[in-house]
UniProtKB/TrEMBL annotation:
Protein's recorded name: Glycosyltransferase family 1 protein
Keyword Transferase in annotation: yes
SUPFAM superfamilies: UDP-Glycosyltransferase/glycogen phosphorylase (SSF53756)
InterPro entries tied to this protein: Glyco_trans_1 (IPR001296), Glyco_trans_4-like_N (IPR028098), Glycosyltransferase_grp1 (IPR050194)
Annotated PANTHER family: SULFOQUINOVOSYL TRANSFERASE SQD2
Species per Swiss-Prot/TrEMBL record: Thiohalocapsa marina
Glycosyltransferase subfamily 4-like N-terminal domain mapped to chain residues: 39-188
Keywords per UniProt: Transferase
Length: 392
């Protein structure tokens, strides 16, 4: 990586080699139903909060927590169809006290659940600006729901109604792909724009380990759910006995996946991986795969890019809509399976693969720095432009 340029007065050096405005004096509350330890939305805001604090902002992430197999932060109710997730009702008095201490100027709400709706109410009651993060297209996920049409319809109706209420109350809605921006506008967002995705600081601060001489270990990491297209990973393991496949995560398909791993000697299910173990896990593999049929972005793909790994994604992953990031990715072609794409990569020479990995890390570094500057423009100055829109 290039060494950082000298910062101008009034800026603080941020990862990415660009001076970022000093954010001291900024107070932000992020109110989310997504536990930082359990999914990509939770991880997004945990990483964003870390970056904002590093440049002087006072930020609180108010959300449920998942530690050592237990949920904290409110009353946990089982989520129908997925015993690995909880629907957590927040303690109103506790959340209100945290608002009283922080007195946020801006409230960020990324989820349409009980935490998010309470965050919206408190933001409006206290005159704080309200920013909505739109990460999940629930209607498309409902089409894949295998746990009853009635529940799927009720859940979809509830989530869409909450999203409409959040969008109406918001000052700005941000989504992480152009498709999701269009969906937000169709639901009712009057001000919608594009946001980037942050990367854990250590992923960029720590030099990546060198690539192996040839592809040997392949990783899928994420929620074990129908939209992740895990059949493609299992089929690729059958087609490539020369490769070892690792699957990390938890979700409603865990039992099925455990059976597949028992039947295939080169397929290992390693369970849920704590956030602090993700970096060494990525460094231990040669390629990360994300063959999803629905994927608004694909945070784990960006994290693997930051570690200079080969990353294979389906055409449905929103990360491909970012031109800078697409240059560092391999896309599963329309006439290919995931197994075919792996065969194609095995046919490329080492120099080509190393160049792709270096391009991936550079692109991830760039998008992370641009995203932080973009969020600061929004939080400090109320800028409503998307990340790719030009400055004045």
């Amino acid at each position: 990586m290039n060494s950082p340029a000298a910062s101008a007065p009034g800026t603080i050096d941020a990862i990415g080699g660009a001076g970022v405005p000093d954010a001291r004096g900024l107070r932000v509350a992020v109110v989310s139903d997504a536990a930082p330890e359990r999914n990509g939305v939770g991880a997004y805001y945990r990483d964003l909060v870390d970056h904002l604090r590093a440049v002087g902002a006072r930020v609180e992430l108010i959300s449920p927590r998942f530690r050592a197999g237990r949920w904290y932060g409110g009353l946990g109710l089982p989520l129908p169809g997925d015993p690995t997730q909880k629907f957590v009702l927040p303690r109103v008095s506790l959340l209100t006290r945290r608002f009283d201490r922080l007195q946020p100027q801006v409230v960020v709400v990324p989820t349409p659940g009980p935490f998010g709706m309470l965050g919206m109410f408190l933001a409006r009651r206290r005159g704080a600006r309200l920013i909505i993060g739109f990460h999940t297209h629930f209607e498309r996920l409902a089409d894949l729901n295998q746990h009853g049409r009635l529940f799927g319809a009720l859940a979809q109706g509830y989530l869409n109604a909450c999203n409409r209420a959040l969008f109406r109350a918001s000052d700005l809605v941000l989504a992480n792909s152009p498709e999701m921006v269009d969906i937000a506008r169709s639901i009712g967002a009057s001000h919608a724009g594009l946001m980037g995705t942050p990367i854990p600081r250590v992923f960029l601060q720590q030099p990546p380990t060198p690539m192996s001489p040839q592809i040997g270990r392949v990783l899928f990491a994420g929620r074990l759910a129908p939209e992740k297209n895990l059949d493609a990973v299992v089929d690729a393991a059958r087609a490539h006995p020369d490769l070892r496949f690792l699957i990390a995560g938890d979700g409603p398909l865990r039992g099925w996946l455990e059976q597949q791993a028992a039947d295939l000697p080169n397929l290992d299910y390693i369970g849920w991986v704590r956030r602090g173990r993700i970096l060494p896990l990525i460094d231990s593999i040669d390629a990360l795969v994300l063959p999803s049929t629905v994927e608004s972005f694909g945070t784990i793909a960006l994290e693997a890019m930051a570690r200079a790994r080969l990353v294979i994604v389906s055409a449905h992953c929103g990360i491909l809509s970012w031109d800078r990031l697409e240059q560092g990715l391999f896309r599963i072609r329309d006439d290919e399976t995931l197994a075919d794409t792996l065969t194609r990569l095995q046919g490329l020479n080492r120099a080509t693969l190393e160049h792709k990995a270096a391009t991936a890390r550079s692109a991830a570094d760039d998008i992370n720095a641009r995203n932080l500057r973009h969020w600061l423009r929004i939080l400090q100055h109320g800028d409503t432009r998307g990340i790719d829109e030009p400055a004045d």
